[in-house]
Each structure stands twice: as C-alpha cells, then as structure tokens.
Design goal:
single chain; binds iron/sulfur cluster; 4Fe-4S ferredoxin; eight-stranded antiparallel sheet; 4Fe4S_Fe-S-bd; 4 helices; alpha+beta; 4Fe4S_Fe_S_CS
Length: about 170
C-alpha cells in the first residue's frame, strides 16, 4: 500500500505524503513569525485558504480541486488560513522562539477551550500524547468558530504535533 492509499484508508497523513506542503528548511529556521504548513494532499473542491490569505501566499487555485501551493516569500505566518481552513489542514510553525522550543499555531474546535498559560497535552496525527505544551495565546474565532491556539512545543516535534488535549 503506498502513502496515498494509506492516507485515504486511514484519514491520517503519512509523513511527507506527496501534496503536503512544508516550508523551505533553511529559511524556516530564521523566519520570525513562522511559515504555514499545509497538509491537504487530496484533490477536493475547496479553496478558502487561498481566498482568505491576505498576502497571496497561497496561490489562487486555477481549478477548485487543486491542492494548495505556497509562495513562501509572501507568507507572514499570520495564521488566518489556520482559522479558516474547514479541513483543519493549515498550521503555522515559528522556529525562532528559542533554541529548544517552537511556537505552533493550530486550529481548535473543541471544548473546553484552553487558556493562556495553561499546559496542554500535545497530540500526534494519530492522537498519541507526545509532549506537554504551554498555551501562549488563543485567538477570537472568525466566522466559523474555529479558534487558533498558539502553543510552545519542543522544536524537534514540530513535524509531529498536530492537535492538543485539554486535561483539567
Ligand atoms: S499564514 Fe497568513 S500569510 Fe501565510 S499562508 Fe496563511 S494566511 Fe497566508
Ligand atoms: S481550505 Fe484547507 S481543506 Fe480547503 S483546500 Fe485549503 S488547505 Fe485544503
């Protein structure tokens, strides 16, 4: 079974599956504010990521079914696409936070909402707890009630952490 068959059968992205978009490694290390990561490898009729991006970093889709392409020279790390993607497929990672830590902005649609300063469990794509993370901000939701939670995570897990769990 190849990566795409695994994805379509499980719903879980296999690492670096064709169509998932990661920032260029060297520029990413130095980019204050971070860059977007888009994990949307399946052709589906969807394009809010491209239409809401204020800087045109997500290239307008020629066909509504296109998978996203990113012009990283234009990405500011603003996180608007994180809040507006209905597939919860956009993330922003800032690798400049400290030597050991990164900030990950991820979409969150569950309750309870975490609060600033709270320590949450960081989950892998398959829902396994892989680390603790400290919440540093929670955005007000846009139209569709998706919050964007910014958490400080171990930098070496930036490719693995894709969700959080609030434990009280
Ligand atoms: S983080 Fe902001 S600038 Fe970057 S792709 Fe998303 S909406 Fe565009
Ligand atoms: S909005 Fe999200 S699900 Fe839709 S095409 Fe963009 S990244 Fe994929």
């Amino acid at each position: 079974m190849d990566d795409k068959e695994k994805l379509y059968n499980s719903g879980v992205l296999v690492e670096h599956c064709e169509g998932a978009v990661l920032p260029p490694a060297e520029e990413w290390k130095k980019k204050r504010g971070g860059y977007v990561i888009v994990e949307c490898p399946q052709r589906i009729p969807c394009n809010p990521c491209a239409t809401v991006c204020p800087s045109g970093a997500i290239v307008p889709h020629a066909d509504i079914n296109d998978t996203p392409e990113i012009d990283y020279a234009k990405c500011t790390g603003c996180g608007i696409c994180v809040a507006r993607c209905p597939g919860l497929a956009c993330f922003v990672a800032d690798l400049t936070y400290s030597d050991e830590s990164a900030v990950l902005k991820l979409p969150y649609e569950l309750l309870p909402l975490p609060g600033k300063g709270e320590v949450v469990k960081c989950l892998s794509r398959t829902g396994d707890v892989v680390a603790d993370g400290e919440v540093i901000s929670v955005s007000e939701p846009l139209k569709d009630c998706t919050h964007v939670v910014s958490i400080v995570i171990p930098k070496n897990l930036v490719d693995d952490i894709r969700s959080i769990k609030v434990v009280r």
